[in-house]
Design a protein that fits this description.
Helix content is 27%, strand content 22%. The protein has eleven helices and 15 strands.
């Protein structure tokens, strides 16, 4: 096996390959709906973007919004979402409130002619997702699900290693991705919203979007032909606690790779697009949280924490079973906390400075009059909304009441 190589220079962002700095972006004025922990981290991360400004925040109680505004030096605080949406200075709204209100708040934002970044889950049903996407297109506005993972340089590089100019894995054969955490570390049972069915609690909304997005990235956003799910649903609360899903992807072509001396590493009967994925998610115990992509010419591992990674590795296959031709290690360091970030409490969750990559891409797309990002398209959001519905249906989780 050859000596491994370490690379630390971030790749250009998928939405603008001309850039060398993934945090470079035009000005954008943000409004924040929901003043909880995730909104805190998103707001903190925007402080890494000199051109970004959070100009207003809103909560259901003015006191909560004002406390949030004071902490982050936000000029305006509102005690209702409608007031923020009437503020002409707000160009794009980050929605980070409780899951079950995604459709109603997303609808309000779009009808107020605001661009919208909806935190995961994008919606609590495929029907709601289709409605919001249709409304955004009708009103010619930017809309995106907050799949921030896609914007980390480690994931941008993983895309390039599988599909782009640096592609080395050959045809994707299998994807394995997990995200399990122990909710009892921070949440009270059964009072926390993570255990509250009609607020959108449960692992299928909280963590399933991450491994689903990992699979859809490496299978180009195609809907799998088969989905099989097993897991546990809490009888007392009605929320799903954990599950494992196996996905099968049908071939996208019946023409196999050419089998000749110049392409010996593709000398397999595998058809393009065909493959499988094994996904695990839950909130009962903590998993390693990695994504492994197996290709005909090697394998790639997005290192833990896989939903907000800074490291990945590639091992290239040599001729013969079990032989490796070499490996490449990638590490992309997050921006360091500024004094301003430290004084306002730092971050609640791991690697939340990475929200800055997502916010920068949103600003670039809005600034160039694009209505979605190529890193995570609305079509992919719909595919994964359908998969969440299928998971919940197979587990026997009841739909959320309107």
């Amino acid at each position: 096996m050859t000596t491994s190589t370490t690379i630390s220079t971030p790749p250009p962002p998928f939405d603008d390959p001309s850039l060398t700095n993934p945090l470079e972006c035009p000005p954008l004025k943000w409004g924040i709906i929901g003043c909880g922990r995730v909104s805190h981290d998103f707001t903190q991360a925007t402080k890494h973007l000199p051109s970004a400004s959070v100009v207003a925040c809103a909560a259901r109680r003015l006191e909560s919004a004002q406390t949030f505004a004071d902490k982050h030096k936000i000029p305006k605080a509102y005690g209702s979402y409608d007031e923020l949406l009437q503020d002409d200075s707000v160009e794009c709204v980050y929605v980070g409130n409780v899951h079950s209100f995604r459709r109603s708040i997303g609808e309000k934002c779009l009808k107020a002619n605001k661009h919208v970044l909806l935190e995961k889950p994008f919606a609590c049903s495929t029907e709601d997702a289709e409605y919001l996407i249709g409304l955004a297109k009708e009103r010619d506005l930017f809309l995106m699900e907050g799949m921030w993972t896609r914007f980390f340089p480690a994931v941008e590089q993983a895309r390039r290693l599988v599909f782009g100019p640096d592609a080395v894995l050959g045809e994707v054969v299998h994807v394995c991705s997990d995200f399990n955490f122990n909710a009892s570390d921070s949440e009270e049972y059964p009072s926390s919203f993570v255990y509250t069915h009609n607020l959108g609690g449960g692992s299928s909304y909280l963590v399933a979007p991450y491994p689903l997005a990992a699979a859809s990235l490496f299978y180009k956003g195609v809907m799998p032909s088969q989905v099989s799910v097993v897991g546990q649903v809490d009888e007392a609360t009605g929320v799903d606690l954990q599950a494992a899903a196996v996905l099968n992807f049908a071939p996208t072509s019946d023409v196999a790779p050419v089998m000749d001396a110049d392409n010996k590493n593709e000398n397999t009967p595998k058809l393009p697009g065909a493959g499988t994925a094994c996904l695990s998610f839950g909130m009962l115990g903590e998993s390693n949280e990695e994504t492994t992509v197996i290709g005909t010419k090697g394998r790639l591992v997005i290192r833990s924490p896989g939903h907000c990674p800074t490291k990945l590795s590639v091992t290239l296959k040599a001729e013969g079973r079990g032989n490796a031709a070499g490996s490449i290690e990638y590490e992309f360091v997050l921006p360091e906390d500024t004094d301003e970030i430290t004084k306002s409490g730092g971050f609640v969750y791991p690697n939340s400075a990475g929200f800055a990559y997502e916010a920068a891409a949103v600003a670039r797309c809005i600034g160039s009059d694009r209505k979605e990002t190529p890193q995570y398209t609305l079509q992919e959001t719909l595919v994964n909304a359908r998969l969440v519905d299928a998971i919940r249906d197979q587990l026997g989780v009841k739909p959320i009441a309107n």
